[in-house]
Amino acid sequence: MATIDVGQRVPTLDLKLEDAEGTPHDLSAALARGPLLVGLYKSSCQASKTMFPFLERLHRRYGGDGLTVFGISQDSANVTRSFARRLELSFPIVIEPEGYPLSVAFDITATPTVFLIRSDGSVAFTTMGFFKGPVNELGDAAASAVGRQPDPLFTDEDFGVPLFVPG
C-alpha cells in the first residue's frame, strides 16, 4: 500500500495545478469544501486505465453530495487529454509539474494510487493498483465520507473487468 496510511494527514495540498487546457485547480480549496478523492496515475499503466472508470463512477455518484474527484497525471497535456477522452472522464485531471511534487510528497510506489482524504486532511482510504475488493471498499468509504449508504462500485455489470490488475 501507499506510504501514507489511513488516519495519517496528507502532505500540504497548497499547489495550484493546471489541467490539460491550462485551467488552474486548487486542491486545498476543494478539500476545504468536503472530502477529496485523488488518483495519481500514468496513462501507460493498465491498472490506471482500469481504475479510472470507477473513479468516474464515484464522481457521478457522489459529486453532488460534496465529493470532489481529481486525477493527477504524470503525463503531458496531450496524453492527459487523450486519456480523459478515451475513458470519458468528466472530473478534472491536473498535470503534475516536473519533478512530480505530489507523487513524491505522497511517496507513491506504483500507479494508480488513490487517496480518499477527509476535510481535516487525514486519509480515510487508500489503495494502489487495481483489485476488486479494494475498489468496493473505496466505494464504501466514499459513500461514508458524504453520508450516503454504500452501493457496490464493482458490480456484475463489470463482467469484462479483471478482478486484479497490478500497479
Topology:
Elements: E1 16-18, E2 24-26, H1 27-33, E3 36-41, H2 46-62, E4 68-73, H3 77-87, E5 93-95, H4 101-105, E6 113-117, E7 123-128, E8 130-131, H5 132-145, E9 164-165
Parallel strand pairs: 3-4, 4-5
Antiparallel strand pairs: 1-2, 3-6, 6-7, 8-9
Helix pairs in contact: 2-5
Q: Keyphrases for this structure?
A:
5 helices; Glutaredoxin; 167 residues; five-stranded mixed sheet; alpha/beta; two-stranded antiparallel ribbon
Task: Please characterize this protein's 3D structure.
- With 167 residues, the protein is of the alpha/beta class.
- It has a domain at 34-147: 3-Layer(aba) Sandwich (Glutaredoxin), CATH 3.40.30.10.
- The chain is built from five helices and nine strands; from the N terminus they run ββαβαβαβαβββαβ.
- The strands form three sheets. A five-stranded mixed β-sheet has the order 5-4-3-6-7. Strands 1-2 form a two-stranded antiparallel ribbon.
- Helix 2 (46-62) runs parallel beside helix 5 (132-145).
